[in-house]
Design brief:
The chain is 47% helix and 11% strand. By secondary structure, it is an alpha+beta fold.
């Protein structure tokens, strides 16, 4: 993974923590979680406060995610709100943290001036043993603490202020007034500085989770749909009137679900031709064939002419695989008819020619699911499904790791927003 790290393709865009007072605050949070303090003089953190360097020091990549449920967080600065989340068991953890930090921006700004905020994203279960445990999570609550108990002291000061306003003789209580002065030295003027978060409960909607080898949950008004390996405990076991279970091994049923619920854009000329989507898929398919045929080849000097020559020289392998010819035929049909007749396309090939509907709330999650059916497209895997990408990357030869990294750097990393807008219609 060193090549990925050096190229900012893993643990990229993290925030460096090297100021002694911030490290001291981080250690207070670690101690509150029952963990050993760090001896590092500098480390990086993501939006949740997770640090790959501290995970390595502790020998525990789940130090902020014990049991992969009830995720912990450590907030040192409001700047964390603009960071990614690089290690989580639930795909919506990043969004939940973003909503929490956005809705409580004033309180976080005020608290982090003097203190560290830490706690857990709690839900209704403490252990996940089967799918039903996951489905029982309808909402999450941020349990928020602070090392110096600024939150508790602000709440106490607020009550004393209310007492002073409501009780006619409260101003005569010298002990109470002295306590208020003492608390104000820590909290400041709570009339101006909102120190208590306004919203701590949030909906737990559609998501992917790493539990049971990877599982998707999509939520619609009348039905919740689970897509996973059918060997997952609890698959098709309960609530058939509320929960639909689809095997991720059944490409046809998964595709029908995405299409019938309006989550995907079908292959039409209106977006296919201007996006270059089919050309991209075709190039990725050919690269994957080259990898399988010549896993030790150095592709550092490969260009489009070389690729075309390779295609002509390996026509038998190309035709036997079928992906490249299918995409070329799809491109011709769309150019002639304005659309592709999907009922005549094999289920597994349908995912090659669709993308998530860009304006759907589940667009990123849907593109992630599509990428599971198109593993040859490592660019899409990296954009939407980093967990899958990293697993694929581990299986590559050194030559292909280098090729993948250079391709990502010259395409996606060069201008992420433009890349996502062109291929997937997503506007940040």
């Amino acid at each position: 993974m060193n090549l990925l790290r050096d190229s900012d393709l893993i643990y990229g865009r993290l925030l460096t923590i090297d100021e002694p007072h911030l490290i001291e605050r981080y250690n207070k949070a670690l101690k509150a979680f029952g963990l050993a303090p760090t001896d590092l003089q500098a480390f990086e953190i993501d939006r949740s406060g997770f640090s790959p360097q501290i995970a390595e020091e502790l020998g525990d990549p789940l130090y902020l995610d014990p049991g992969a449920i009830n995720r912990r967080f450590i907030i040192l600065t409001p700047a964390q709100g603009d960071l990614p989340v690089v290690h989580t068991a639930f795909s919506n953890t990043s969004q939940l943290l973003y909503e929490f930090m956005s809705r409580n921006q004033r309180a976080i700004n005020a608290l982090t001036i003097k203190d560290v905020i830490y706690g857990e994203i709690e839900d209704s279960v403490s252990r996940v043993e089967d799918i039903e445990d996951l489905l029982s999570i309808n909402q999450v609550e941020f349990r928020v603490l602070s090392a110096e108990d600024v939150l508790g002291k602000a709440a106490e000061l607020g009550k004393l202020v209310d007492r002073l306003k409501l009780e006619p003789n409260a101003w005569r209580d010298d002990a109470m007034l002295e306590r208020m002065v003492e608390l104000a030295k820590v909290c400041g003027d709570i009339r101006e500085n909102a120190l208590v978060p306004d919203q701590v409960i949030f909906r737990h909607n559609a998501y992917w989770t790493s539990h049971f080898g990877g599982l998707y949950v999509f939520v619609d008004p009348d039905m919740t749909t689970v897509i996973s390996d059918p060997s997952a405990p609890g698959f098709r076991r309960s609530r058939p009137w509320q929960v639909s279970y689809l095997s991720i091994l059944d490409a046809e049923k998964v595709f029908v679900f995405l299409a019938s619920t309006g989550r995907i854009e079908l292959p039409r000329a209106s977006w296919i031709e201007q996006s270059g989507y089919l050309e991209h898929r075709a190039e990725m398919a050919v690269r994957d064939l080259i990898r399988k045929q010549e896993p030790t080849r150095d592709l550092g000097t490969v260009d489009k002419v070389w690729m075309q020559t390779w295609i002509h020289g390996h026509a038998a392998e190309i035709n036997r695989d079928g992906t490249f010819p299918f995409l070329n035929a799809a491109k011709r049909e769309i150019a002639q008819l304005g659309q592709l007749k999907l009922e005549e396309v094999k289920p597994e090939n349908r995912f090659l020619v669709v993308r998530a509907k860009p304006d759907h709330p589940d667009a990123w999650l849907t593109n992630r699911l599509i990428s599971d059916f198109v593993p040859s497209d490592f660019l899409s895997r990296y954009v939407f499904n980093k967990d899958g990408f990293y697993k694929d990357y581990e299986q590559l030869t050194p030559q292909w790791r280098s090729h993948v990294v250079e391709t990502l750097k010259s395409t996606y990393l060069k201008d992420k927003a433009a890349f996502r807008a062109r291929l997937y219609g997503l506007v940040d």
